Every structure is written in C-alpha cells, then in structure tokens.
C-alpha cells in the first residue's frame, strides 16, 4: 500500500527524497511495503556497495538486514522527523506513519536510529 500523493524529488546535496502532493494529518499510515530479508553473510557483501545506504537492520536481534520495496528506502533522515517506521518481522513488511501534520510539498523524513525523536548521531554527516 502506497498513498498516491507521495512522490520522489531530487534535493540538492541530499539526492532524492519523498514528498507529498497533499496535506497529511498526524498518525496516518502512508506506506506499507514488503521487504526482502537477507542474512548476516549477505549484509557483509551489501555493506561494501551503494546498497549499504538503503538497507535496514532486521530481526529482533538485528542479525539480518532487509531491502524495503516501495519508497521506504528513499525517505531521508532527520533528527526532527515527521514520520516513523514500524517493522513487522512476521509479515516481512515496513510501515511508514506520520507523527505530526505534514504540509503539501513538504519532505517526509524518518529517523534512521529507529525512533522518530532519537538524537543519537548517525553514521554520516546530516545535511
């Protein structure tokens, strides 16, 4: 499930990001996407490629990784994110949900630390 008002847009210095064509209220699930789950041995290989920046740690012990389909892997990081994500290990899917109202034309962001308000430093310089 992917809301039709979401779209990708190029952003200077950041690459691509996810934006909305409409205003979105808080607490709305805007995307639910299946994932492709891979083991630790695949993670070692993926970490040496461009895909490293697009995969998620996966599993209760974070001993696997996954590639999300849909737009999930395209949401940029923000310490003041307007969305959060939820992993369903049984269903092998990730949901994106808004945490506050979002204006038309605004970029949708998630916090790569896993919690939308987590201010722990991430592995790259934040723009």
From TrEMBL:
One of its GO terms (molecular function) is histone H3K37 methyltransferase activity. Residues 4-113 form the SET domain. Gene3D superfamilies: SET domain. Pfam families: SET. PROSITE patterns: SET. It comes from the Bacteria. This is SET domain-containing protein. It comes from Ginsengibacter hankyongi.
């Amino acid at each position: 499930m992917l809301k039709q008002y979401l779209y990708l847009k190029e952003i200077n210095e950041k690459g691509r990001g996810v934006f909305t064509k409409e205003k979105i209220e808080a607490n709305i699930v805007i995307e639910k996407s299946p994932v492709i789950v891979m083991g630790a041995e695949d993670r070692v290989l993926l970490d040496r490629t461009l895909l490293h920046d697009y995969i998620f740690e996966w599993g209760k012990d974070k001993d696997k990784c996954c590639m999300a389909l849909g737009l999930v892997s395209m949401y940029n990081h923000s310490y003041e994110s307007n969305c959060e994500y939820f992993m369903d290990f049984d269903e092998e899917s990730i949901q994106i949900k808004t945490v506050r109202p979002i204006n038309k034309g605004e970029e949708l962001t998630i916090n790569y630390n896993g919690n939308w308000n987590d201010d722990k430093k991430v592995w790259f310089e934040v723009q």
